[in-house]
Amino acid sequence: MAPVSFNNIAKTFGSTEVIRGISFDIRDGEFMVLVGPSGCGKSTLLRMLAGLEEITAGTIAIDGRVVNQVDSKDRDIAMVFQSYALYPHMSVRDNMGFSLRLRRADRSEIDARVMRAARILNLEPYLDRYPRELSGGQRQRVAMGRAIVRDPKVFLFDEPLSNLDAKLRVQMRSEIKALHQRLKTTTVYVTHDQIEAMTMADRIVVMHDGAIEQIGTPLELYDRPDNLFVAQFIGSPAMNVVRGTLRRTGSAAHVETADGVRWPAGSGGGVDGQAVAYGVRPDHLELGGGGERTVPGEIVVVEPTGSETELVVRIGDAQMTVETHGRTTLQPGDKVGFAIDPANVHLFDQASGARLVS
Amino acid sequence: MSTVALPGVEAAASAGGPRRRLSPWQAWGLVLLAPYVAVFLVFVLYPVGYGLWLARHPQSYVQLFADPVFAGSVVNTLIFLIVGINLKMAVALFLSGFFVTARPWIRWLSVLFILPWAVPSIPTILSIRFMLNPEWGVVNQVIFRLTGADGPNWLNDRWIALSMAMLVHIWKSLPFWTMILIAGRLAIPGELYEAASVDGASVWQRFRFITWPSLSTLYLTSAILSMIWTLGDFNSVYLLTGGGPADLTHVLATLGIRYLRLDQVDLAMATIVSALPLVLPLVYFMMKRLSR
Amino acid sequence: MKRLLTEAKLVLIGIPVAIWTLLPIYHMFLFSISTKEEAFSGELWPAHPTLRNFGVVFREQNYFLNHFWRQFANSLLIAVAVGAITLVVAAGAAFSISRLRTRGGRLVLNCALFTYFIPAAFLAVPMYKAMGTYGLLNTQWALILAMVTIASPYAIWVLKQASDKLPWELDEAARIDGASPLQLFRLVYLPLIAPSLVAVGTYALLLAWNEYLYAFLLLSNDKDITLPVALGHFLSADDSPWELLMTTGLIYALPPAAIYYAFKRYMVAGLTAGAVKS
Ligand SMILES: Nc1ncnc2c1ncn2[C@@H]1O[C@H](COP(=O)(O)OP(=O)(O)O)[C@@H](O)[C@H]1O
Ligand SMILES: [Mg+2]
Q1: Out of B127, B232, B242, closest to residue C28 by CB
Q2: Do both A139 and A204 map to the same domain?
Q3: Which fold has domain C67-229+253-274?
Q4: What CATH number should be reported for the domain whose range is B61-291?
Q5: What is the pLDDT of residues C149-186, one digit of tens each?
Q6: Which residues line ligand 1 (CB under 6 A)?
Q7: Residues A269 and A345 in one domain
Q8: Residue B120 three-state SS
Q9: Which structural domain, as residue segments, surrounds residue A45?
């Protein structure tokens, strides 16, 4: 258990800058998720923390100690790889005990710690099997077992669930979460999947193009995205966005799009006439209703999922996703209005993408 | 750079000693590579350099070119390469087609077929040498029994002896190249042939339009590699004819060694140097192929 | 009818192939079980097959066979040494080049490939001179080192191909687990490329056991030479005991053939894949 801090970290491969001066701190015992689209530099950042990649500039400290020049094996970290990277020629027991064996621990101590980890992960029946004799989920657990046997200061995960099928992924998600709650070890978890990030993280770092877009708890990111990128990246289905001009008259405000639709907005930031991006989440478009705060729409597609129904609707020239709870008798072609509460509207500057705050 | 020169960096850098020091990983990389580098320097680079230095006098070449045995060896080597290799590779191509036919007895035959390659050359070449003995060899005895006439003196005529040496070479290396081409043929997807059968392709058409296009690169590479190895084949000629009769069947490989045994190292090296215009392009081609 | 014709054609190819392949080997075998008179008679099977020749060879009862056992042991010792040293040299180099990405590794690999493509008989000449310079001529170390030189390029290449296929994450996992470079080599790398090591070790061993030219150049003392050189000596006399020569040859040819067939699985996959990458 230990805090981790990144200070002005940069990384270049040849002449390409992959990480552009990143700073943030991870608290002791925190579950921190690095999320962002593929290629944004998450793995590179994690690998620098692991000591697998040279740090071009800046410092990384684990538990207050700068580790730039420290070899991986002396950083007291453990890592779970996407491909699991189990040693194919060793049994599960030997895989899990390998790091302790390298540290010349006692046989009895190795056995005890491997057994403890196996019990936590329900791996006891498989200890004498080889990786090739295990299912994907079991291999995943062995990879985690190998990490927890070490009892390291920090756990690192690089897309550990990407090789699993959808159902197993959900199950392992909660297992990892439960494991963290039990062990309380500082964890850095990399994923491109924002749902994984939202469901598992204490806090999330959203990365894009080698830089941080926003750091915050899952709900902070969902409720108050700092910029258009985060707004569109976090949340599923993704936030609906249209581009238009902000019209402000006294305390009332709306955004006008080229198709003539007037989108209700509240007392947020921005000045009259400003070019803005107007964002509203699918579950904040309310079916029916009328009056001031309503925009007219036409149903294009109805997608029932059972407990919820997803609608694709045309509002003006824009296609929007709407999420309704329960079921509906609506048909494609039906004309309906959608009410929008200005409190749920997100406004961003069109040029910079930054959130407009009052 | 100055913006990231934080106190921590400097502390870490000075604590870790001079930045140019090798990490254990780099150091072990060099240690583990060193034995081969040493082998290469001591037993390849120095000898070759020394040998080339010994062959530096133009007058060695004058002497070499004046030796009629050299001219004969060049001709023999070219014949060996052109006839020997084309014959060998063509037969290997044909036999690879035979051996991929699915029959139990052909599987068994293929196991036996590897034997010439799996056993050392010396005893088998000597065995062939005795088979060709004009008086006691089984070949001439069979000829005598069948026709009542004496067979030829196989190893005492330049062209017959050279042909026999080529056959010995083919006998020895045919299994290897057949195996390579079998592997190549097995890599061709079966659906191609099934589709062709449905389209009513004849045996020849299947070879022409499916097998050959997939196999031609492998065939060419094999032929080139085989050329290089054939140039270095000392045994087939030396153990069968010893270069005779009257030094008429030497190839460059045996000629070089002959000079060496006569303690004319400069001539031996000159022989090799005169083969370089042929060898180096082949080597270059192969290196390009393999180091991709 | 058409099927029958196909089978007939296959048989017509198969029989000549079998005869062509086996004739020299059968001839050798025939000599080994015949007396001298019968061997020279040109019959296809001796009237009185005998194992006497083997007795003569094993008891070294002929001028040419005075040191048979000694020479057999020399062959064995040298082959095993070449196999072992080649494995050490090649595994280290392949690991260094492929897994540690040692700087200059590419160059070394190209040097090795270049060596591999120098025709063997051409390299023999300068090698012989150099061994003289090093004072190694007529010692078995000369032959061992020469054969290691010739065997390791291909060995390195095959092992490097195999190494390149191992996933990177394994090395990284081991590094994080605390492995030193040498522990990674010993505990992770070597076990994982074991099949290729078997192929390469066998290749080097057979290469050394079978080698004639270098053995004949670098060794001369009757007690130092290997079996193939001793076989070559039979040719020096006008009326050599060919039946004994063939018997010795057969004994000499059996172990490599046996090893080849025992390790065929590894050899064919490893060596044909390596020999020609199309
Ligand atoms: N060893 C490398 N050499 C050159 N470029 C690299 C290397 N590793 C990663 N990159 C590049 O760095 C960027 C970030 O990669 P990575 O950290 O793996 O992204 P992520 O894990 O977010 O998908 C990518 O554009 C990738 O192509
Ligand atoms: Mg990644």
Answers
A1: B127
A2: yes
A3: MetI-like fold (1.10.3720)
A4: 1.10.3720.10
A5: 999 999 999 899 889 999 999 999 999 999 999 999 99
A6: A 13, 18, 36, 38-44
A7: yes
A8: coil
A9: 4-227
Which member of A85, A99, A102 has the closest CB to residue C170? A85
Same-domain status, A91 and A183 = yes
Handedness of CA A270, A272, A274, A277 (dihedral sign): positive
Q: CA of C192: which chain A residue's CA is closest?
A: A89
Report residue C216 as tokens.
Answer: 């004949």
Taking the Cβ of residue C277 and every Cβ of chain B, the question of whether any pair is shorter than 8 Å is answered with: yes
Digit-coded pLDDT (tens) for A157-208 = 999 998 888 888 999 999 999 999 999 999 999 999 999 999 999 999 999 9
Q: By the CB < 8 Å criterion, does C146 face chain B? A: yes
Residues of A in contact with C187 (CB under 8 A): 98
A186 within 8 A of A64, measured Cβ to Cβ: no
The single-letter code of the amino acid at A137 is G
Residue C128 vs residues C144, C145, C154, C186, C218: alpha-carbon distances, Å: 13, 12, 21, 36, 7
ipTM of the complex model: 0.91
Number of CB pairs, chain B paired with chain C, less than 8 A apart: 284
A304 and A199, same structural domain? no
Q: Hey, is the C-beta of C170 within 8 angstroms of any chain A C-beta?
A: yes
β strands within A217-307, DSSP E: 240-249, 252-256, 262-265, 275-280, 285-287, 294-304
pTM for this predicted structure: 0.88
Chain segment B96-151, per-residue pLDDT in tens: 999 988 888 998 998 899 899 889 989 999 999 988 888 888 888 888 888 888 88
Contacts of A137 (CB under 8 A, 6+ apart): A164, A168, A171, A172
Closest CA to B234 of B259, B249, B251: B251
Q: How many domains does chain A have?
A: 2
pLDDT means per 10 residues in chain B (292 residues)? 36 42 87 96 94 89 90 92 93 92 88 89 90 83 84 87 93 91 86 83 85 88 90 90 86 90 89 90 86 66
